[in-house]
From TrEMBL:
Family: Belongs to the radical SAM superfamily. 7-carboxy-7-deazaguanine synthase family.
Pfam families the UniProt entry points to: Radical_SAM (PF04055)
Cofactor(s) essential for the protein: Mg(2+); S-adenosyl-L-methionine; [4Fe-4S] cluster
Protein name, per record: 7-carboxy-7-deazaguanine synthase
Catalyses which reaction(s): 6-carboxy-5,6,7,8-tetrahydropterin + H(+) = 7-carboxy-7-carbaguanine + NH4(+)
Organism per entry: Flagellimonas aquimarina
Task performed by this protein: Catalyzes the complex heterocyclic radical-mediated conversion of 6-carboxy-5,6,7,8-tetrahydropterin (CPH4) to 7-carboxy-7-deazaguanine (CDG), a step common to the biosynthetic pathways of all 7-deazapurine-containing compounds.
Subunit structure: Homodimer.
InterPro entries: 7-CO-7-deazaguanine_synth-like, Aldolase_TIM, rSAM, rSAM_sf
Binding sites annotated in the UniProt record for S-adenosyl-L-methionine: W50, C51, D52, G86, S127, P128, K129
Length: 210
């Protein structure tokens, strides 16, 4: 049972519901192929039906963990740290990123943007979801926009989201894994007709790594 003191530390971002942490190769987006240490934070209410980490949704099933412990583990593996979830912005990312930056580590986040942006980031991957749209502020600072394509209508959604991001934001369309055989040809054709977009694939799954 989580004590009131621990609950308060979680709310302040000094402890976080840690689902898992692992060293691997970034498989998606701009930094694909780069060695990185991933920190997966539990808790998400966005509710994508095709989510491949639904076990991350319930924060209560993941132990509140001191950010000091998380940072020490991360620093021993890589200079590039990717915070993902779940939806990491459910929590205050300020204390975690301050501690990571104190060790001169690169901080990346993968987020739906559904909650206010907290923390200090070297790279922001915004992956918006229809169920719970991003907060407006994140569009101005996102480094990449990654839209998951599950069906043809997602291309319309992608254009709606692309119209909101800053002019330097890199645009990616990524097929949802379970329907990739159908969506890849559609995406390839769309990108060839609309070259402002790039194709993102979940290359880590092809490589059979986490």
């Amino acid at each position: 049972m989580v004590t009131a003191e621990v609950h308060d530390l979680v709310n302040k971002g000094h402890m976080l519901p840690l689902m898992e942490e692992f060293y691997t190769i970034q498989g998606e987006g701009y930094h694909k192929g780069t060695a990185a240490y991933f920190i997966r934070i539990g808790g998400c209410d966005v509710g994508c039906h095709w989510c491949d980490v639904k076990e991350s949704w319930n924060a209560e099933t993941h132990p509140p963990t001191s950010i000091d412990s998380i940072v020490d583990n991360a620093a021993s593996y890589s200079d590039t740290i990717v915070i993902t979830g779940g939806e990491p912005l459910t929590w205050d990312m300020g204390p975690l990123t301050t501690a990571l930056k104190a060790k001169n580590l690169q901080t990346h986040i993968e987020t739906s943007g559904a909650y206010p942006l907290t923390g200090t980031w070297d790279w922001i991957c915004l992956s918006p979801k229809k169920n719970k749209l991003p907060e407006e502020e994140i569009y101005n600072v996102a480094n990449e926009l990654k839209v998951i394509v599950y069906n043809k209508h997602d291309l319309i959604f992608a254009e709606e989201q692309a119209a909101k991001v800053n002019e330097n934001c890199i645009l990616y369309l990524q097929p949802e894994w379970s329907v990739r055989d159908k969506m890849v040809p559609l995406i390839v054709d769309y990108v060839m007709q609309n070259p402002k977009w790039k194709v993102s694939l979940q290359t880590h799954k092809y490589l059979n790594i986490p």
